[in-house]
Amino acid sequence: MVFQPADSATLTAAVAARQSNRKPVILHFADLLVGPLCASARPRRFPLLYLLADGAAMWLAMQGLFGSMFLVFGLSRAAAIALARFAGPETKFRREVSAWQPWIELSLYVFSLATIAIANMTGPIAAQLSTFPSSQVVRGTAAASIDAAVTYLTVQGDVFFRIVTRWLLALLKGLENVLTLAPWPVLFAVVGFAAWKRGGAGLLVLVWMALGYLGLFGYWAEALQTSALVLASLCVCVVIGIPAGILLAKSPTSRAIASPVLDLMQTMPSFVYLLPAVAFFSIGKPPALIATVIFALPPLVRLTCLGIEQVPLHVREAMQAHGATPLQMLLKAELPLALPSIRTGINQTIMMCLSMVVVAALIGGGGLGYNVLFALQNVQYGEGILAGLAIVFCAVLFDRLAGSGRKTDL
Question: Which among 21, 64, 175, 369 is least surrounded, fewest beta carbons within 10 Å?
Answer without folding.
Answer: 64
